[in-house]
Design a protein that fits this description.
The chain is mostly helical. 58% of the residues lie in helices and 5% in strands.
Length: 132
């Protein structure tokens, strides 16, 4: 049961520092109008790093809003006895945005993984650890 865990963020940071530093530093902030703390946290978000590739996040991709959207839909489903068809248009739109956000993440990770692996597999040396 020696299942490897890959911290793709660690590998991505190493890859950026080694091969994409100038290109990454030249990128504008990932999201405008954020306080400095949140701006710093978004810098190495998956969607931000993916700007170095041809696979970009959709326009309505909104890191930091997913949990509140899920909470809104979860509470609405509780009130409506788990009947999705009884949700309002706004609640359904929030769930659609959550699913689109997740779909982007799921599709983006293997693309980033392969790009890093093709460039320099050594970027994964410290990023892979056993799960147990």
């Amino acid at each position: 049961n020696n299942i490897p865990y890959i911290n793709l963020l660690g590998a991505a940071k190493k890859w950026i520092k080694k091969y994409k530093r100038m290109e990454f530093e030249a990128l504008p902030p990932f999201r405008k109008n954020l306080d400095p703390f949140r701006q710093k946290r978004m810098r190495y978000s998956l969607a931000s790093v993916m700007r170095l590739t041809n696979f970009r996040a959709p326009a309505d991709y909104a890191p930091g809003k997913t949990t509140s959207r899920l909470n809104t839909v979860g509470l609405a489903l509780e009130k409506r006895h788990q009947n999705f068809s009884q949700l309002t248009r706004v609640q359904k739109a929030k769930m659609t945005k959550v699913l689109k956000h997740n779909l982007f993440d799921v599709k983006a990770m293997p693309i980033l993984f392969e790009l890093i692996r093709e460039t320099d597999p050594d970027c994964f040396k410290k990023a892979i650890k056993p799960l147990n």
